[in-house]
């Protein structure tokens, strides 16, 4: 899919350039954009280094585990068919907390681990269980306390207050998660 | 409500940093050394995403400078006008569930063109932060357990994305004014 989108952007762009008579500017834009991408990468690097350094401290101090214990009661309510003390439940809590803290790299292995544990409880080997579906939908809803990448991009673009979107993002994410959870609870009766 | 959202935004990060480091020190973590260990990962993360970011920014740069983006936006204008949203936001909403690095590139371009503190910049930032790369997440996680059937996951995931986009537009209008 992304192959097609990328190809259309470039081919469509140069085709349009022929019609608008902006071939030279467009060629220049290709080089300028490549240069800008590297500059942007360096501005992003500063914030990633700061954030991942902090997060390492949070992991080592047991803060991530402490957060996981806090959200366990909510997950037990959402996943009544997953035993509360199972390793599947533990892995799900850790994954969701890692996602909340913007630890994408740590979250994915934890999420895969959670899926494997959930699959052990799954009676059907060809289709995901209700719990697996709901867990995935919650993951795609992206519950993030601090959207690191967006803040980094805003800071690179020279924003006066890069973090001013934290509150609005959190509110939008909650709407999204509630919609995803409600849709899952309804749709599971039909599929 | 609006004051609370702005308050969260202003204090979230300083409070978080102080809390994480303070708690780490309290628990006997060598905070400086561990910070450095984690920080190394920040470097490799950027090196890893740089090719994707460059590929996408070049494509978007070509698409915008050539006038094709204007054309697309004018084609979409009746739809976005009917929905009451800025046409600049629609390409981001379409690309977001498909590719994280592509939409990050598009957001960077949007912020550069419209300004990060414009209503479009703020709304686009909120849209980006409140959604995930739905298609990618589903394929990685289901792939890891070797299951091909997706049941209702994609439908529910895309509904959640749609809710996030609608909420972002409404909330930003409310908080930052139009």
Question: What would your notes on this structure say?
Answer:
- The complex is a heterodimer of chains A (191) and B (178).
- Chain A is built from 8 helices and no strands.
- Chain A is an all-alpha fold and 191 residues long.
- Chain A folds into 2 domains: 1-44, no CATH class; 62-187, no CATH class.
- The longest helix of chain A has 38 residues, at 23-60.
- The model of chain A has no long low-confidence stretch (mean pLDDT 89).
- Chain B has one domain (2-176).
- Chain B has helices at residues 2-26, 31-65, 68-83, 89-95, 100-114, 119-129, 134-144, 153-176.
- At the A-B interface, helix 1, helix 2, helix 5, helix 6 and helix 7 of A face helix 1, helix 2, helix 5, helix 6 and helix 7 of B.
Compose a concise summary of this entry.
Chain A is mainly alpha-helical and 191 residues long.
Layout of secondary structure:
The complex is a heterodimer of chains A (191) and B (178).
Chain A: H1 2-20, H2 23-60, H3 63-78, H4 87-100, H5 104-121, H6 130-140, H7 148-156, H8 166-187
Chain B: H1 2-26, H2 31-65, H3 68-83, H4 89-95, H5 100-114, H6 119-129, H7 134-144, H8 153-176
Biggest sheet features of chain B: none
Number of helices of chain B: 8
Distance between the termini of chain A: 25 Å
Structural class of chain B: mainly alpha
Sheet-strand content of chain A, in percent, reads: under 5%
Coarse shape of chain B = globular
The count of domains of chain B is: 1
Average pLDDT level of chain A? 89
Percent in helix of chain B: over 70%
Report Rg of chain A: 21 Å
Largest sheet of chain A, in brief, is:
none
Radius of gyration of chain B: 19 Å
**Broad shape of chain A:** globular
What is the number of beta strands of chain B? 0
- State the low-pLDDT regions of chain A, or none: none
- Beta-strand content bin of chain B: under 5%
Cα(first) to Cα(last) distance of chain B is 17 Å
Largest interface: A-B, 106 and 104 residues
Number of contiguous helices of chain A: 8
């Amino acid at each position: 899919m992304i192959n097609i989108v990328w190809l259309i952007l470039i081919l469509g762009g140069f085709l349009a350039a022929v019609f608008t008579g902006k071939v030279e500017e467009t060629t220049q834009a290709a080089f300028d954009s490549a240069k800008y991408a590297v500059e942007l990468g360096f501005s992003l690097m500063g914030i990633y280094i700061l954030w991942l350094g902090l997060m390492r401290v949070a992991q080592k101090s047991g803060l991530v585990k402490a957060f996981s214990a806090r959200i366990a009661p909510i997950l037990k309510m959402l996943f009544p068919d997953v035993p509360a003390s199972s390793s599947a439940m533990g892995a799900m809590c850790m994954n969701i907390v890692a996602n909340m803290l913007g630890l994408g790299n740590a979250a994915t292995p934890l999420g895969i681990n959670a899926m494997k544990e959930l699959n052990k409880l799954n009676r059907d080997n060809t289709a995901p269980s209700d719990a697996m579906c709901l867990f995935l939908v919650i993951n795609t809803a992206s519950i993030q306390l601090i959207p690191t990448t967006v803040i980094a991009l805003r800071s690179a673009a020279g924003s006066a207050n890069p973090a001013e979107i934290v509150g609005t993002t959190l509110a939008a994410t909650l709407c999204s998660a509630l919609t995803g959870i409600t849709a899952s609870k309804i749709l599971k009766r039909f599929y | 409500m609006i004051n609370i959202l702005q308050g969260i935004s202003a204090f979230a990060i300083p409070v978080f940093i102080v809390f994480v480091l303070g708690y780490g020190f309290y628990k006997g973590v060598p905070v400086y050394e561990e910070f450095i260990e984690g920080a190394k990962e920040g470097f490799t993360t950027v090196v890893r995403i740089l090719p994707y970011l460059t590929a996408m920014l070049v494509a978007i740069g070509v698409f915008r400078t050539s006038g094709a983006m204007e054309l697309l936006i004018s084609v979409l204008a009746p739809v976005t006008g009917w929905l009451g949203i800025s046409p600049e936001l629609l390409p981001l909403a379409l690309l977001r569930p498909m590719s994280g690095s592509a939409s990050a590139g598009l957001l960077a371009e949007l912020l550069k063109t419209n300004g990060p503190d414009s209503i479009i910049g703020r709304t686009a930032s909120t849209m980006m932060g409140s959604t995930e790369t739905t298609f990618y997440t589903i394929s990685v996680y289901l792939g890891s357990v070797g299951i091909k059937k997706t049941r209702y996951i994609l439908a529910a995931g895309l509904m959640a994305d749609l809710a996030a986009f609608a909420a972002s537009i409404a909330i930003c209008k409310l908080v930052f004014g139009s």
